[in-house]
Design goal:
5-stranded antiparallel sheet; 2 domains; Immunoglobulin-like; alpha+beta
Length: 243
């Protein structure tokens, strides 16, 4: 599961234009730090926009300004000097649904795919986290939109990152769960009092397996009173095991 260069460049364009949400931007910056070619594209685009930014008088922008700017960026030929020495970019055919016009849910899918790529050594793949997660799961809501990514390290620790603007009422808690087996039933990995990246420390469980279920639910403050999921499911998904 990886991003091609067209996807990455399109997300980079939105990043420079300030069109990513706060969570999406934070996740994209993780990709940016590990991909020199992507970093070069962001720098080149910023340099190209700087004269416009410095010289243009302050005016109210027309409603279609962003659409026209995106179209102009998409029409610009790729710069041959955009990649650092020693970095080769394999061109890909233009896509009919170029990412700046793609739905927000698709962009979140692509950023989630990039995070998985970082976790399992795929994607842009220059650095690998240590230790590596045993499995990674993308948690989706009922509409099929990714909400969070869980990386389970199989040592009682798991990491969660949100890839959507999940709403957490002040009197509620987000609780993460996994299903090691039907006999065991759902087991809590931990609770969160805010929507932010976090390390969850759960009980001592067997090593996570491929297709193991993970989910997050909305529970009363402090967590489920029964030790089992009681609130609405915010997102669920199945584990992809690291090769």
């Amino acid at each position: 599961m990886s991003l091609n260069r067209t996807d990455l460049n399109a997300i980079a364009d939105d990043y420079v234009l300030g069109l990513l949400g706060e969570t999406e931007a934070e996740l994209f910056e993780e990709l940016l730090a590990r991909d020199p070619a992507l970093e070069a594209r962001v720098a080149a685009l910023r340099d190209g926009l700087l004269p416009l930014d410095l010289s243009a008088p302050k005016v109210d922008l027309p409603d279609d300004f962003m659409d026209r700017l995106r179209e102009r960026i998409a029409a610009e030929p790729a710069r041959e000097d955009a990649a650092p020495r020693g970095v080769t970019i394999t061109p890909v055919p233009p896509q009919a649904d170029n990412l700046p016009q793609a739905p927000r849910a698709k962009r979140r899918w692509l950023i989630a795919a990039g995070i998985i790529g970082l976790a399992v050594g795929l994607g842009t793949g220059s650095l690998r986290p240590t230790p590596e997660p045993r499995v990674v799961a993308v948690l989706m809501n009922a509409s099929g939109e990714p909400q969070a990514v869980i990386e389970d390290y199989g040592n009682r620790d798991a990491k969660i990152r949100f890839v959507a603007d999940v709403t957490l009422p002040s009197d509620k808690t987000i609780q993460a769960w996994t299903l090691p087996s039907p006999e065991t039933g759902p087991v809590s990995l931990g609770t969160l009092d805010r929507v932010a990246p976090a390390v969850l420390t759960g009980p001592d469980l067997p090593a996570p397996a491929p297709q193991q279920l993970y989910e997050i639910t909305l529970e009363p403050a402090g967590g489920s009173p029964t030790g089992r999921p009681t609130g609405p499911i915010l997102g669920k998904g199945f584990a992809h095991i690291q090769s």
